[in-house]
Amino acid sequence: AAEWGGTDCYTNADYMSRIWSFLSSGPTGGWTSKSTPGETLFEGPFAVSSVSWHTCSSDVVNKLGPIVHEIGHMLGLSDLYGGANSVGVGNHDFMGSAWGFGAHTESPTSLSAYHKIRLGWLIPTVLDEGAGGRYEITPSETTAVAYKVTAGYPEGEYLLVENRQPVEFDAYIGPGGLAIWHVDENQPYNGAAGNPWEDGWPGNGVGIRTRLTLLQADERYHMERKFNQGDGKDYFRNRGPGGVRPTR
Asked: Counting Cβ atoms within 10 Å, is residue 223 exposed (0-12), middle (13-18) or buried (19+)?
């Protein structure tokens, strides 16, 4: 797999000359056979992922992460890698990173609530003006539960709140907690995501200018600064009598 890097033992090909996992929409009308004129081999988009993972051993099967990432594209999901100045959502959604926390590519982190909603796997409870009260929020990896907060936001912009816990495909996320996503349907998927360490932020025009952003509880903007692909301190947790607080 080209994602592994290095040089192939059999052909001496470097990673830029080997098979990368990718999605292609395919030519219009499908792929046709050269040996049988007029025969259509298959139609529509396709995804490619290398069978082997390492560079020298064909018996090491490719990990699950790159495969499910490309399947996500087949289902209509977009990359969440971020723009030039960020890593996007990082390991908090396998469309942001197929490696997962701790580089456990055999067990990539699950999808975010946003992508589960897009696929029809989750219908969020909407909290609009006057929706006060006490709410129970069970782990989103095992239950289809999330809250959509629209109060105080313009059309197309809102917060999504889900409970991410270290179970099943989220097993390596760390202590877990509430993931609070800022969603702006009017922005591109991999737009700019600034941070307070930039000159003039946010008045420099690089505030939150991307479709999906995780509001990180430690307030360190690690993903916007390309320090890491996210970590367990990005989730909000109960810090005692005061309730949910930042995790600095």
From this structure: buried
Closest alpha carbon to 162 in 131, 144, 140, 184: 140
Which residues face 31 on adjacent strands?
A: 42
Which two tokens mark 120? Answer: 């029809």
Mean pLDDT within 35-57:
67
pTM, full prediction: 0.80
The strand pair at 125-127 and 147-149 is best described as parallel
Q: Answer whether residue 54 shows pLDDT above 80.
A: no
- Distances 69 to 127, 165, 220 between C-alpha atoms, Å: 31, 21, 27
* Tally of CA atoms within 13 A in the half-sphere of 54 that contains its CB: 7
Q: What is the dihedral of CA 195, 196, 197, 198, to 10 degrees?
A: 70
Q: Provide CB contacts within 8 A for 176, sequence distance 6+.
A: 139, 163, 164, 165, 166, 170, 232, 235, 237
Residue 199: is its pLDDT beyond 90?
Answer: no
